[in-house]
Amino acid sequence: MTSTKRTRYHVGNREIGRDVEYRVECIGPLDEAREWLRADVEAVAEDVEDPSPFDAFLDRLDDAEIVGEHHIDAFTFFVRAVEDCGCPCDCAERGEKCDGEHRREAVAE
Fold this sequence. Notes:
The longest helix has 16 residues, at 30-45. Strand 3 (68-72) and strand 4 form a beta hairpin. The chain is an alpha+beta fold. Helix 1 packs antiparallel against helix 2 (52-60). It has three helices and five strands. It is elongated and about 45 Å long.
């Protein structure tokens, strides 16, 4: 019997000591999770006084293990591997056929 379980990744960030402020995404392939993490880091770097720690992280991101937490300046960025996460699917609301591959808003962490 074939298992229908598959790993998805919850990707997001928060300021250290605070709850997650922005939407957290549930993404299928690890490469997409890496790109989402990159976009999150770049977006935060645009709003800080000294982006050099963020730039240093981005320089090594392609060769880094991304699952886990990454602390940069006053922020924590995370990628969590989740089996059968149960994230809500809004395909019907958007009038799309669900293929199970799209990004989803992750359930509250």
